Amino acid sequence: MRGVVKRTWRPLLAAVLAVAVMGAGPVRAQDDAQHDAVVARGAYMAVAADCAACHTASGGAPFAGGLAFNLPTGTLYAPNITPDRQTGIGQYSEAEFRRALRRGIRRDGATLYPAMPYPSYARLTDEDVHALYVYFMDGVKPVAHRVVQDGMSWPMSMRWPLAIWRTLYAPDPGDVRRDMDRRTFADPLVARGSYLVEGPGHCGACHTPRALTMQEKALTAADGPLYLSGGDAVDGWRPVSLRGENRTGLGRWNEHDIVRFLATGRMPLGAAFGGMTDAIGHGTQHMTDEDRLAIARYLKTLSPAATPVAQGWTYDPTATDALRAGNVSARGARSYVDRCAACHRTDGRGYPTTFPPLAGNPVVMDPRPDSLIRIVLEGNVLRATRQAPSAFVMPGFAAGMDDAAVADTVTFIRAAWGNDAPGVTTADVGRIRRTLSPEHPPASLPMN
Amino acid sequence: MSDDARRLKPVDVVIVGGGWAGSIMAKEMTEAGRSVVMLERGPDRSTASEGAYPASIDELEANFRYKLFQDLSKNTVTIRNNSQQTALPYRRMAAFLPGEGVGGAGLHWSGVHFRIPPDDLRMRSRVIEKYGARFIPEGMNLQDYGVTYEELEPFFDRAEKVFGTSGEPYMINGKVVGKGNVFSPSRSDHFPLPALKDVYTAHLFRKAAEEAGFHPYSLPAANASRQYVNPYGAQMGPCNFCGYCSGYACYMYSKASPNVNILPVLRQHPLFDLRAGCHVLKVELDADGRRATGVTYTDPDGKVVTQPAELVILTAFQFHNVRLMLLSGIGRPYDPVRNEGVVGRNFVYQNVTTSNVWLDRGIETNQYIGAGGGGVAFDDFNSENFDHGPLGFVGGSPVWVNQAGVRAIAAAHSGGPPGTPRWGSAWKAGMIDTYRHSLRIDAHGSNMAYRDVYLDLDPTWKDAYGQPLLRMTFDWKDNDIRMNRYVVDKIGDVAKAMGARRVNLTKREFGRPFDTRQYQTTHLGGGAVMGSDPGTSALNRYLQSWDVHNVFVIGANAFPQGTGYNPTGMVAALAYWAAHHIRTTYLAHPGPLAG
Amino acid sequence: MRGLAGIAACGTSLASRPARSHPPAPYVPRFFTPIEWAFLTAACDRLIPADENGPGACALDVPRFIDMQMDTPYAFGAQWYMQAPFVQGPDNLGYQLPHAPRDLYRRGIAGMNAHAATRHGRPFADLAPALQDDLLRGAENNRLVFGDIPSSVFFDQLLANVMEGAFSDPVHGGNTGLGGWTMLGFPGARADFMDWVDRYGAHYPLGSVSISGETA
Known about the structure:
heterotrimer; A: mainly alpha; Cytochrome Bc1 Complex, Chain D, domain 2; 2 domains; three-stranded antiparallel beta sheet; two-stranded antiparallel ribbon; 20 helices; 7 strands; 4% strand; globular; B: alpha/beta; FAD/NAD(P)-binding domain; eight-stranded mixed beta sheet; six-stranded antiparallel beta sheet; 14 helices; 24 strands; Membr-bd_ADH_cyt_c (chain A); oxidoreductase activity, acting on CH-OH group of donors (chain A); metal-binding (chain A)
């Protein structure tokens, strides 16, 4: 197909309209119906681009910034992107807005930290950039909120090296356009999915590994199998591979599973945690079913990254049989039975969509155990979504289990039921424990 | 005090009490497009905090420090056995345990979820038809509910689907479909979930009850036998028989509660406003006392505020509803001397005794395994399922093993067989033997209403807000004691079939008064009952005050007399029934729904 | 005197969870005076004596539990309706005294020791076990007169707290080493029997676990 992106944009969900209306400021409209449609489309693209995940602080005004963004190089605070003229982006022209979005250049010419995923936003179509601009100017309420200075330490606090970084690693939107035009897709849904994932969705920002110099090692599926093959630590979490690896990727998730996951944060093989909670909460749960399906279908085109290909996961009942016989002699088995099995079961299969399985779970088998250790220490809140109003909370065990107990338990989980991931050490757990924020359990527990 | 109260912006509906009835009514009223304020005197509560695992698995805090229960220091009742006595305050939790906080007792109940037997709804008519009017003992205020099972059936069905109730049906649309309770009425649909598995003791009881010639069935339980999504989209986990239901928020999200099954959706509704920490002092009436104008309450800062509303729905615990009617002047207070007046009339309880069966020491009964609503029962001696003619009493009792999980402190308190000391080595041996090798069988009987058993306001003691406490005048009556003794004897037959090593049949004793020091049950009922005669009922058959048409009162207070079953299923069905008539009739044409 | 010996013999510190790494230091009561503590430790071990069925109340640190409870709102009567007037009535209408648990202990222990002194010339803690049992039975059956509280009210308070101390989660200071639960066969805070609910007649093989993660 010639057009890179099929215009699958549809009349919007009432919900997205509601977002637009709620945020409506002084509307400088001429042709109102048309204008409203553009605002609504911009609102939808802001959802698809998950702007709120970074630019809306928990409990803060929409897009007024302030969210702390922990990177290996320091803490970033996302800026205010409401149309407030003093503290937000109210003085941006559309050209300046487009340049910031696609090229990472601020209105004053300074370079944005690449926490802003402009290497991905470079792929946004002109029409979508326009819609976003109109939405942010006319559909978002201006909020005067001066965001504190970025807390990066020198030399990362100096913005001039960022310009060099940008020149070296950020794609030129013109080149991107040409690349996009060259790629063809047999299935228009896959085309739409590639646009959403590689462009506004900026999934690679978390799920693609970065080089030492911090650029993503691949920006699109066309760049090879490192794309979405699992990212570096983001806010202490290790994003998993979204490619087709059987054990550690989405090899055993079908399209429907992915669609359901993006809508509700839960499906029979797993549940959302970490950064994905916000991505679903602010973003994918508000997308159309068709767009979620487009994302799913596109992700299912990504081949497994790992070579040689590991043997596919099959369930092994050895651990289950032992636990059910009361045999808890294996390392970590007793604490698993005492603290985990109530919800995840002795068979590791959990209670699908309520309490996720650990058997065969890609997060559990990830070569890097960080996320699993962190969940054990800190717990997790599976938030309510529009389609799944019930939240579920896993308690954290940081206070009730020492590093050795966590290491034993995690080692058990990673090796039971056909899982084949290596064990973890007390030191691994200690390293993760030291990174935990003191604010746990989370300040706002769900009320059900 | 109401004159000085700050007046808030009027709303369509104010609901007093955030438990099952309140949450159901709030959901229904917001669905009808009405703005709702729900006032709850206790704190806001959720499974995530009150049910955190494993910290919440704490018997001391839950069952002995009453973490989730009513704060008696602020408000309690006074109790006496007869009107010659001075009623004394119920100062410490013991005989009954009312809840408090968002979710009410619905957060920490057990989960037994029944439909009422059809005969119980027209008990007076049925007894007269079968045995003649003279069969009714002197002083018993036997009454009909004014509503039939057929009328309520859709609302029982609705409640079960919202609660995610597990059970085995017997008859659906007149056709026998399963091995459920042969005495149960026909249903319009299956239970939403299959019955829970039998724990070992229930399994043994089922076999023995069959052998003894009875008709055992699985208790209908609002403990989900597997994961479930209810019609509101709310999700439940599966019950894993952890044994921590009664007194606990269910950490598995598998016991139905307003918090899990309704509030996740309700809290998101823009027309819904939940205010916790708000204690309602009275319902405000207009000058001629025929119409409610709102409620006055103390807010969490202790300020007295008035919330005007078009419709006032009382959904607090049974006796709090009655007390609020008395404090507000809604309906005529009951006069036991003349047997006239309606508010406070027909106060009833539940007539429960627990017997014990000891099995061979080789058999471990694992009493810590349990589900609050699970178990096996037989109804051969419940309701009008048996001929009362030669027996000479009214009422009945299901018999069951409802092993909700016996925990360690409770086991220690229960001790050993009768005659065992309460402490020392003999106690220890008896207690351990009892815990490991025995089971409990309940006779969960009805309690009839009597002319001299009633509720009114206490002349002496006050609550923390300076308002009089409610006074209970209650005692067990011969009719109910005879019923209990008759049914408990049947437990002996079952125990024999079980091959019991030892049996302790616990029966009510004639002349032994109601004892407030021993836990019995929190199934209190009546006091503001429904019916078709304004002379004997405070509420019409739609649970609407006869006297103040924009006040509806939902709860077990509406039961004209006790039944053999647990009340929650009936309360939920009555809530949906009342809501249906409010939505379909009252909102369009406010006024009395029954003439 | 025996009272201090009682402290040394009976009290141990709260084990740091989940595993203990230090030898336990003697527990120093915060509420009870040494004389009261001596009574409490002696009485607890009569109420739940060590025998062939399992540990006694002292080994389970029940006195420590009770002392720790005395610092909770419960002990101040915060959960009880304590409005006057306090009118005495028939027993079946329940507790009608103006005293919170802390008061009941102060008055009750003084009453028990007074009886011990009058009858035997020594405080309760210094009596032979059989004499201690007699006094406890006297209180249980309300045969002792304490002046301001019925002795059975004190006894019931003590017995209730002893049971709580022996069989509540060890996080509250009693049930040391999960000894109470182990003797009973109670699994504790695992709270999951999905695999066991319908294995009729099977022995449940897993030991107890505390909220803290401590296991037995």
